[in-house]
Amino acid sequence: MIPLAENTTGNKMRVYELARELNLSSEALLKVLEEMKVSAKSHMSSMSPEDVKKVRLRFEKEKIAARSKTALKKRKKKKRRKPRITAEAVKTVRDTLAKIDSGTGKARQKKRKKYKEEKQERQITEDAASEEALLIRITEYTSPSELAELIGLPLSKVIGKFMELGVMATANQRLDVETVTLVADEFGFEVEIVESYGAEEIEERRISADGIEVPRSPIITVMGHVDHGKTALLDRIRSTNVLSTESGGITQHIGAYITSLADDRKITFIDTPGHEAFTAMRTRGARVTDIVVLVIAADSRVMPQTQEAIDHARAAGVPIVVAITKIDLPTANTDFIKNDLASHNILVEDWGGDILCSEVSSITGENIDDLLEKLMLQADVLELAACPDRPAKGTVLEGEIDPRSGTVINIIVQDGTLRLEDYFVTGRFSGRVRAMYDENKNELEEAGPGDPVQILGCSFVPDAGESFVVVDSEHEAKKVTRIRQLVQRERELHAGRMVSLEDFWQKSGDTEGVLNLIIKADVQGTAEAIVDTLSKLGNDEVSVNVIRSGAGGISGNDVNLAAASNAVIIGFRVRPDARAREEASALDIEIAIFSVIHQVEETVTRALSGLLKPEQKEEFLGSAEVRDLFKVPKIGVIAGSYVVNGIIRRNARVRLVRNGVDIWSGSISSLKRFKEDRKEVKSGFECGIGLSGYNDIKVDDVIEAFEIVSISREL
């Protein structure tokens, strides 16, 4: 039993210490403290003896209530009795079987089959009625055959129920959630919608494997604004030089690296790009990490991407350790940085807060050991553990198609052990581990919790951020991914996305003001980052429509798709193959190649500006006063006018103004000087003006001539 007495020492207790005592995570306890209105900002916050007593008392009450509930369930279960079989029931069954056995051959077999189906259906219905409604898990767009398998009824019965509800469905036709839920409810089943088919079942089976949890190395993500020294800091820690390999000195991909410390402990670092275009990549980094290192240059301040990194870490419930870099610069001002952090609710320990902070220099190596020590201290508080004996589970960090090796994906193992020849599922794709390498390209036979590895053998490039999980067999892997692909296809079709060349042709007339793009990049994460950046461009008039995006070189299929959809192909650090280049030239398809992401954004912005409808502006030409009126048979009223200023042109638009008010607007039907037709009459001359379809002209009216000019606009 949890002791209810106060701390005998009378000292305050930290959140993580109480969480360990109650067998909870610090994050879970912090949520409880928030509900109880007990002040605690993080796992390092201190609690008074009174608050500790209050929390202990609450958990003791919940424990007693849980024991009572369990005992009540056991008593109810004991009270259940099998239904008594009466003589009448036995007689009814015998009579039914006698009727079934009457007749011969196929007729008798048909009766027996029908009887078994009805008996099975009655049994399921009775079970559902006697207990709480049974729960089944389905994805969007489940087929009748899948539903029949889930609820254990013959397919004919399920299809019959669809028909009763007015839905004429085939066995493999994929139907919307509402329709499937309605039919399931008719059979007494509740429906739970799952995002990814098979994910929960695979995970339940995975964690049921025997094994002992052991401490694992922390996974740490480095975040911050562009050019604040994130990669340089990792270079110093790992004694490598990654920065020089990146275009423009800006990190373009997610990288994961293991660093060994002096006491043989390890840290896995994830280096996320700081450029604003990589928001999605930073988000994925926060999801897989245990601790976030927030890097801020000592000669700068908290920038927009720094604040964004803080938000991502908080949203993921991940503790933050601050690293103030570039303290070797003469313009460094660490107190200013700490003050700026405080204004963003990040209070470091030096300023009375509970956020660990180190002031470091990647050039001189100053305080690097102090940063690593604080990271391990934070990891010890989290009590990170994993079970190496389970099948592996992890997250995809990156993926690409290598011309020599095929599909290559970078993952980080978060639990279990990944081995060669393991079958796996990641998103809509599956495969078998044919080869496995560490970050230094050393071949591996297995990888444990916390290890980042590169593997070969996936059927296609999965989206960065997808879960990665080992399954029992190739059959299971293919079954899961086949259904996920079918569901994804239905989602795209129902969302009205273009999925075939016919669709592109049919919609080609609706693309005015839309810039269609096909984006190919060297890795999947970069392709997604470019899509995310370009999708934010445009306004109500013009926009970007990304028809296809992915990793790998530009192929002939991409060119054909661009031709069908009137699209431009954007390649990021990839090139078209020979066939694609020839077809692009023949079809006049533009292929733009880039190596730095902001150049893509600038180029597309200029292209969108070209799609903007020009601004229509009225340009004044001249005005004439009406001084006399002449009625001409079959023509109408002609205004004898004097051009006061400017010029009156025959093909210009005009408006009739009376006492300063616009009376009419239209065009000139005739413009004459004396009896001669004129194209224009200048200021200081008299002329006769006829207005198209309008005769209600009066003396002293003013006729103003103007034209509409188009002025190009920028996005």
Structural overview:
The protein has 715 residues and is an alpha+beta fold. It has 6 domains: 13-59, Arc Repressor Mutant, subunit A (Orthogonal Bundle); 104-201, no CATH class; 219-383, P-loop containing nucleotide triphosphate hydrolases (Rossmann fold, 3-Layer(aba) Sandwich); 393-490, Beta Barrel (Elongation Factor Tu (Ef-tu), domain 3), CATH 2.40.30.10; 501-611, Translation initiation factor IF- 2, domain 3 (Rossmann fold, 3-Layer(aba) Sandwich); 615-711, Translation factors (Elongation Factor Tu (Ef-tu), domain 3, Beta Barrel), CATH 2.40.30.10. Helix content is 36%, strand content 28%. It contains 20 helices and 32 strands. The strands form 8 sheets. A 6-stranded mixed sheet has the order 7-8-6-9-10-11, sandwiched between helices. Helix 6 (144-151) crosses helix 7 (155-164) and helix 18 (556-565) runs parallel beside helix 19 (578-587). The longest helix is centred in the first third of the chain and has 31 residues, at 49-79. It is extended.
By DSSP (H or I, 4+ residues per run), the number of helices equals 20
Gyration radius from CA atoms, angstroms: 37 Å
Biggest sheet architecture:
6 strands, mixed
CATH homologous superfamily annotation of the largest domain: P-loop containing nucleotide triphosphate hydrolases
The CATH class of the largest domain is Alpha Beta
The CATH level-2 architecture of the largest domain is identified as 3-Layer(aba) Sandwich
Number of strands: 32
Instruction: Please give the alpha-carbon distance between the first and last residues.
Output: 67 Å
Helix and strand content put the structural class at alpha+beta
Spatial order of the strands in the main sheet?
A: 7-8-6-9-10-11
